[in-house]
Amino acid sequence: MTVWEAIAVVIAGVFAGGINTVVGSGTLVTFPVLLAVGYPPVVANVSNSLGLVPGSLSGAWGYREELKGQKSRIAKLLPASIIGGVIGAVLLVTLPAKAFTAIVPVLIVIALVLVVMQPWLNRKLAHRRGHNDGGVLLWIGVFLAGIYGGYFGAAQGVLVMGIMGVLVNEHLQRMNALKNLLTAFVNLVAGVMFIFIADVAWLAVLLLAVGSVVGGQIGAKIGRKLPPAVLRGVIVVVGVAAIVQLLTK
């Protein structure tokens, strides 16, 4: 990796840390960058998941005020995310590499659709009223999102927000705080597993970690003021680039 490539990875980490905190889908920025600097798809995904863990935790910490009063909800949903993340990580390293190359473009397309749908999902969440905690359906939805996040993770946050938007009556920012915590733990458990069971590009992990911690704090402080349409547009462009990159390797 050249100096300029290393700088590009750090910058991608900053951007991803901020996007993950505010929107989700930061992997759609960092994953294609790691592919562009020469890492194979599975190594890039493993290293990306591990490198973004500090950024996810940073973003969750930045939203700690919005997490107050949600202890029972966290206690209920966190196990679903953790178990799902473990299963997703195991699937990543047990399925053939060719399967990953075939599956990921489809996952990215799904993720991009979710990103484009996010304004509708946000409106759905903002307009709901009452006292519905989602029940078993919410647990199952978060569990499946955890599997998805452990396997790849692009738009995991958007997926979780979409599930909660349909099933839970709560303020958007409080749901975003909960989303940050759940996805942080999915990334954490998957990342810890990858250390022991997968090939990791540690330089990429370090560079992404540094960038994503900074980005997580930026996202928590000023992310709500950024134009969502601009963020979604960038994510879609980068996601399409990732699909093209994967299909032409």
| C-alpha end-to-end distance | 19 Å
Which bin fits the share of residues in helices? over 70%
Q: Can you tell me the residue ranges where pLDDT is under 50 for at least 5 consecutive residues?
A: none
The structure class reads: mainly alpha
- Biggest sheet record: none
The tally of beta strands, per DSSP, is 0
Element pattern in H and E: HHHHHHHHHHHH
From the spread of the alpha carbons, the general shape counts as globular
Task: Indicate the proportion of strand residues.
Answer: under 5%
What is the residue-averaged pLDDT? 85
> Which radius of gyration do the C-alpha atoms yield?
16 Å
Can you count the helices? 12
Keywords: Cell membrane, Membrane, Transmembrane, Transmembrane helix, Transport
InterPro entries: TM_pro_TauE-like, TSUP
Transmembrane segments: 7-36, 42-62, 74-93, 99-117, 137-164, 184-208, 229-248
Family: Belongs to the 4-toluene sulfonate uptake permease (TSUP) (TC 2.A.102) family.
Quick overview:
This protein has 249 residues and is mostly helical.
Describe it.
- With 249 residues, the protein is mainly alpha-helical.
- Helices cover 83% and strands 0% of the residues.
- It contains 12 helices and no strands.
- It has helices at residues 3-22, 27-36, 41-51, 53-62, 64-67, 71-94, 97-126, 135-151, 156-167, 172-197, 202-222, 228-248.
- The chain is globular, with a radius of gyration of 16 Å.
- The two termini are 19 Å apart.
